[in-house]
Specification:
By secondary structure, the chain is mainly alpha-helical. 73% of the residues lie in helices and 0% in strands. It is built from seven helices and no strands. It has helices at 3-18, 24-32, 37-40, 44-63, 69-72, 75-89, 94-102. Helix 2 packs antiparallel against helix 4. The N and C termini lie far apart (43 Å).
């Protein structure tokens, strides 16, 4: 898969998980709304920065003339998006880990 295909795949999943038409933006907003997230989930800030970065890259590719994924993305970017997709599926993504960490214990 290329960058845009991987991005769309992740974006669709985020929309389903979040139940929100804003899809990946909804996921990002949910993370941004939890300022203590990094205290509960290792890598929280790094994941949030990457998601915001890839959303910007996607917007550049789609909206700016003479911008292509070949110019802005490499295989490591595609790999990160696919890994994050897998983390959501395995419930090891930041929001799932945050929910587990902050859930009241029985």
């Amino acid at each position: 898969m290329g960058f845009m295909a991987s991005y769309k795949h992740l974006e669709k999943l985020c929309g389903e998980v979040m139940g929100d038409d804003r899809r990946l933006s909804a996921y990002i907003d949910e993370m941004a709304g939890k300022p203590c997230g990094s205290g509960y989930v290792m890598g929280w800030e790094s994941d949030l920065r990457k998601l915001k970065h890839y959303r910007r890259v996607r917007n550049q590719i789609v909206h700016e003339p003479d911008c292509s994924e070949d110019d802005l993305c490499g295989p490591e970017d595609v790999e990160w998006l696919e890994d994050f997709y897998d983390r959501i599926m395995d419930q090891t993504d930041p929001l799932a880990l945050y929910r587990k960490a902050t859930q009241p214990k029985n």
